[in-house]
Amino acid sequence: MRSSRWVLIALVPLALSQRKNSLTETDPKLALDAAPKAIQTITAVDLERHAKKLASEEFQGRLTGTPGQEKAAKLFADHFRQLKLKPLGARKRSKAGPFAQGYPIELDGFGAKTGVYAATGKRIAKHGAWFVRFRNKSKVEVKGKLVFCGVGDTAVAAKASIAVLHFDTEGSRDGRYLMGKLRSLASKAAKFGAKGCVLVMKEMPSPLLAAFGNSGVSFPGRPAVSNPKARRGRGGNISAKVPTVLVSGKDAEGVLSRIGLSPDMAYDAEEDLAVGKKSKSNVRLTAIRKKQKKKALNICAYIEGRHKKLKSEAIVFSCHMDHLGLTADGGCFNGADDNASGSSTVLEIAEAFAKLKPSERPQRSVIFLAVSGEELGLWGSAHFVDNPTWPIKKIIADINMDMLGRNTDKVPNDTVALTPTYRINYYSTLARETAWLGKAFGLQMANGDRFFQRSDHWNFAKKGLPVVFFCDDEHADYHMPTDTAEKLDYAKMEKIARLAFLIGYRTANAKGKPKKLGRRKDWFK
User: Right CATH number for 7-105+296-509 from 3.40.630.10, 2.60.120.1060, 3.60.10.10, 3.40.1710.10?
Assistant: First the structure.
């Protein structure tokens, strides 16, 4: 589903606990005017460049533990290395080098040779969503002739055959309902004696792809991911009574061609006439299980503060770089808003801090943290706060950026959702000053409290640390393959990123630490 000091600021402490309600009496534009020139290096052009890169198919949807997410981790590490930031990881053997912090995960998916094969050994369907009951086996395979059964006339499915059914979504937009219907059809085919089942359709609708993605269904190219140390997570192989695969597009056409059917004959008016047609030769469904233990990666770097004592304290800028990975039809969840948008802001904020003059460096240190596993249960940030590479008691605040590039009904243009707001007990001087500074950028603050426990700042908040979270809102493309980079408002992202930089900069320079305020009547009372 989202900071800048001057000489006078250095002399007058900005700890909100000491300023009481003076924020309402001061023009926030004065703080913006006093910001270091490095803030201007955060631009819409650069944010767009980073976001388009991370949301491209090159990164394969960035599912935690997969090559796409590891590539994103390397991108962050390379960027931090080029900026000459200091590494704050714990893994030297990773491709990301000393910037990487690892935690254990387990992948359970399908091997590369999983597919539908002709008798000649040629693979006729590579992509698809598989429903297989492996039990203790590493390979499940069935052979037989394909029999077309229309939309469910499985009575024609003779024993030793593989039923081919047209999976008709009937206009349903409920992905979970469609997943249930898939299993029901496979069970029906098994009841009538089919050894296996192939479900075909022109294209998989976005709600179904999203249901697969959100439930963590594994299929070729996308394993289920689990964390042995996490309390919860998502993912797993969904089984059916007989080996079943749902295919679409070219993969479906390859299957139908074996029966001598065109897509028109299988999907449209001539469908009834095609029922009962068989392939001339056997076809093989092969599902290979691939399990792997490995390390998921967080990437962490910092800029050292310039105060002899205060540099041992730090603020954190956090974002999650992971998303949902590949789709069942061979595409990917681009995850532009979620969360190439927040990732690009942290990349830009880090660059702005790196370009500060030595005399402009903040008193405290500044940490830049890109985590994995957010979509699976906030795993990466949980691992960081439980196994910190910087003493957790020396971290004074977390500024989290996750989904901040879209305009919605609740969060329109020139508005950003913020949490914690004054409505909940976690409200702090950090959030109050953020709302105040937002005025200088022409940004209104919307209520983002319903997301307070849904992104990585929550793990810092549970440790008692002041946090602030920038986001937009859930929209029609949330967790859909349609969450693409051209839909982001980069001018708005520039404002939010500069605001985040400035609040971080001022917090890192303040004599006092951010303090809890609890519930209030409004932002400034």
Answer: 3.40.630.10
